[in-house]
Design brief:
446 residues; alpha/beta; Rossmann fold; Heat Shock Protein 90; 2 domains; seven-stranded mixed β-sheet; five-stranded parallel β-sheet; 18% strand
Length: 446
Amino acid sequence: MSTQQTLFISSVQKELAQERRAVKNFVQADPSLSRFFNVFLFEDLPAADLRADAVYLSEVDRCTIYGFEDAQGVSPTEHEFDRATALGKPRLIYVHGADDTARNPKMRALVRKAGDQLIRRRFGDMRELLAAVNASLVEHLARTGALRTSPFDAAACAGATLSDLSPEKLALFLGRAQSQRGFALDLATPMTSALTQLSLLDTGQPSHAAVLLFGQAPQRFLPSSELKCMHFHGTQVSKPIPSYQIYKGTVFELVDQALDFCLSKIALTVGTRSAGPQAPVGYELPREAVAEAIVNAVAHRDYTSNASVQVMLFADRLEIWNPGELPPQLTVDNLRRPQASIPRNPRIAEPLFLARYIEKAGTGTLDMIHLCAQAGLPPPDFRQDGGQFIQTLWRPTVIDLVPGTEPQGTQSGTKLGTKLGTKSAPSRHQVGTKSKSSPKRALARL
């Protein structure tokens, strides 16, 4: 990288002066970071016949990364934070201390505001602050390509060989990719050739993506890639859990199994064939919206995390949690508007696209919003919390029946209570762990 990036450090001017100075000195003294970053501190500017707010907002415009450290007192940095947000600058937020109760109300509001949009880090002392800053800057350089590192899903999966991949699962995928997207490779393509074409080999060894897509047993190498499904009768997490399933398998199988779990638990309406030979069928939550949320979680999760994707069905909502954070250029608010597609795991995203599980057009969240609106449901909620990205689909308070249909197990028009709950019939999903080894079910559900 020929041009240095500018790191703008902001905080309450009368607080954290030592911390601001320490961060600047740390970056400038580090042989690697100093190659990529110069640091802006407002107090280092010479005296000038200019208004202070004009100077620092102009510097925010020019900076590459915006860093904010907070102590107590009224923050003079909210304009800077808003300007950095509007301009799509990567924002790194560090909050001093673990307790916000003693802070000025305006400062607490700013901390909450930042926390609603991105992950903030807390630090207790100078050592913790510098370690957090270092980790954030290195991650930024890696993500933007300045360090020339490969994505995790493109790197070789330690210990995995071609014999750990399933020829049947690969052939099933190639058949679907050819029929859905006109993919050039056919079912007879040798495994090595197909994996090379899909960029799923790293110096001849299967990548993490290859194992997650076509592995005989992906969780043998990546245990946390399993997916957990839970169903609660109420609106809170509580024990005992009425239905709890841990699924294992490829990303295709995980999506299909989680979707099947959800659809087996929510209300289904079946018509009478009065309008034609085919009886109309509809779920209380749009099937495509549920599928989109599950695919989002599996495709965009952080596979370096020890956490798993969790699908939790409550009496009033469906929540889907996945480990990972939104890219810095995206905010939760952006998800409600057209945006670029920025896959966290590009090697996984391409086969999901070819199999028509995703579109790679940045339209997934917009599709969910549209589908829920069509069904007369509130818009989905999106939020980040403690390194997790959370999608929420709200269940209806009563079933809005399709004309000529009736809910299974009830009389036509019967209200099912203030909130829909568990189906009365026993579910085939019980507590346990499942691994569906047959690839015929996968790639055929969405």
